[in-house]
Amino acid sequence: xxxxxxxxxxxxxxxxTLTIGDSxxxxxxxxSGATLTNFPxxxxxxxxxxxxNQSVANNVLTKVxxxxxxxxxxxxxxxxxxxxxxxxxxxKYYVYASLCGSTSDYKLYFSIPKIYKNGSEIANISNTxxxxxxxxxxxxxxxxxxxxxxxxxxxxxxxxxIHQNLNESFLGGSMSKTAFGAYKIIE
Length: 187
Known about the structure:
Elements: E1 45-49, E2 54-57, E3 62-63, E4 68-72, E5 91-102, E6 110-117, E7 120-124, E8 127-128, E9 136-147, E10 154-161, E11 167-170, E12 179-184
Antiparallel strand pairs: 1-4, 1-12, 2-11, 3-10, 5-9, 5-11, 5-12, 6-7, 6-8, 6-10
């Protein structure tokens, strides 16, 4: 095996492509602790969840107060006042939300998580149960959203119905119940 030692590898003047290896190369190994730079990233990104149950009125669209962050790479998610993600980098984002609705006294008839961009709904999924024996359900929705990197923002809303004028809850307490997140797609 030959060894090449150098400080800089550059492409030929007038060319915009630099190839390392050939069609027989399947692995490029870096030394332990090496850092690659100038690669695209999938940030900003965040994941937040509801730390405890959130009481909601029956059949009323309600913003989910996902207040506990697992991560927020660029501090773009407000987890204390308006529960919005306002990314500072333009691009396409994969956005997801999981709504766990529950009631202890009556059966659920539907659970609908909704994702909003700049105050308008861009995605929802509806689970309708009729008269079944459903007391809690987890509903998941996802969408790809174009964000301008300055003023565009995303929010998570939910609605559950038990056909009674009583209160229900969005279940919280762990990141696997009611949660909201997004990350930039590498383009």
